[in-house]
């Protein structure tokens, strides 16, 4: 399978994506727990069908010490006993923030209040921004049909 566009060779894509990468670095350095960040990226990527991002973020999470069980259970997080209440709140916010078009009201007050019980304001800023950013990456990769499976941990720095 080949991508529709070679975004890695495009000067314009390189210029645009350096800003995505910069935003991602700021979020990675935030007080939002790193494990939560990877779970959010994985769940949004599952919903959006982004194989490239799933490949990247499952490998990065595993390299950072995430267990195979937790990685396998992200798609069924509601029934899984391996996630904290805070992680569950982040995953719910991720689902609702990713599926905005599927729900007339967008993110529910209940989901927001639950997330706010577990994360302070700066962490919520990081969480909302991360959900938006991974959705942007997912959409880019899905549109160009970026192949998945060859990602190497740390490949993009």
Tell me about this structure.
With 157 residues, the protein is mainly α. The chain is built from seven helices and no strands. Helix 2 packs parallel to helix 5. It is globular. The two termini are 25 Å apart. The mean pLDDT is 95.
* Overall geometric form: globular
How much β-strand is present in the residues?
under 5%
Largest β sheet strand count, sense and barrel closure: none
Number of strands: 0
Quaternary structure of the protein: single chain
**What integer value in Å does the Rg equal?**
15 Å
How do you describe this structure in short?
This protein is mainly alpha-helical and 157 residues long. The protein has helices at 11-28, 34-48, 51-63, 68-73, 85-98, 109-118, 121-144.
Topology:
Blueprint: H1 11-28, H2 34-48, H3 51-63, H4 68-73, H5 85-98, H6 109-118, H7 121-144
Descriptive keywords:
mainly alpha, 157 residues, 7 helices
């Amino acid at each position: 399978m080949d991508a529709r566009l070679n975004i890695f060779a495009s000067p314009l894509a390189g210029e645009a994506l350096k800003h995505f990468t910069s935003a991602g670095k700021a979020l990675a350095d935030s007080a939002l727990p790193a494990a939560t960040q990877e779970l959010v990226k994985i769940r949004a990527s599952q919903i959006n069908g982004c194989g490239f991002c799933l490949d990247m973020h499952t490998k990065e999470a595993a390299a950072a010490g995430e267990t195979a069980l937790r990685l396998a259970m992200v798609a069924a997080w509601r029934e899984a006993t391996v996630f904290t209440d805070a992680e569950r709140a982040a995953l719910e916010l991720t689902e609702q923030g990713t599926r905005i078009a599927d729900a007339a009201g967008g993110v529910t007050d209940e989901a927001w209040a639950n997330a706010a019980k577990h994360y302070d304001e700066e962490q919520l800023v990081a969480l909302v921004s991360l959900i938006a950013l991974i959705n942007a990456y997912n959409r880019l990769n899905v549109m160009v049909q970026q192949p998945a499976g060859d990602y190497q941990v740390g490949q993009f720095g």
